[in-house]
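Render Elongation factor Ts in 3D.
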Amino acid sequence: MAITAQDVNRLRQETGAGMMDCKKALTEANGDFETAKDILRKQGQKIASKRADNATSEGAVLTQVNADGTVGTVIALACETEPVSKVEDFKTLAQTVLAAAVANTSGSKEDLLATPQADGRSLQDHITDLMGKIGEKIDVVSYETVSAEKVVAYNHSNGKLGVLVGLTNTGGNEVSEVGKDVAMQIAAMRPIAVDKDGVDAATIQREIEIGKEQARAEGKPEEMLEKIAQGKLNKFYKESTLLNQEFVKDPSVTIAKLLDNTSKGMTVTEFKRVAIG
């Protein structure tokens, strides 16, 4: 049967696929729209399978905080190359993923990808279909939420790094500015935990062993190694846990002191740092 331009345009509108791909799919499907959609989706599935092991070091990280500032969401949609991350279809898909993530209350990536969209396709179908269109692997590589008395978000200018920080004991004060400062600190200094209580036992043991080996290499006596290693561990806490870090903008205060100075007793409950590349 004859495939009209209107048919091709309709399929393009419904799937987001390119004009030539839509025409080819409709021709192969003898004009049947549902079969043509399946053909286009299979193209995306083939690409997904073929490129499953490819690295995705480009993409977009997006954040959103709800109206009352108590819940924040961050997602990372990754692709293989920078040009694809700049394509309008990819940017639109990233916004679609964020909207679905905000609406998804389970926090599960699997549930997020299964979320039905307005056109009836699942979010995963949208991703697969775009893979078929552009010929690159696309994947939701991060999906995180933070709930707190006050949540502040920060997006780095390169669009590939986002931070959520949860604050408590704000005392009803306006803390968005200091919250952003703390989020930028997290972006720049990459703390591994809020404070030393959040550092896992394996990391602590590793740092102690490293401290002992360094001291031993320096010729320190065996009976002093444990004490020296503990001193190095305390330095590690100061450098690698958020509340103990020196504030980048003013090294005379720690992050803990910065927050307490803003509102007595204010602290960080949790944070999420998501980056691509």
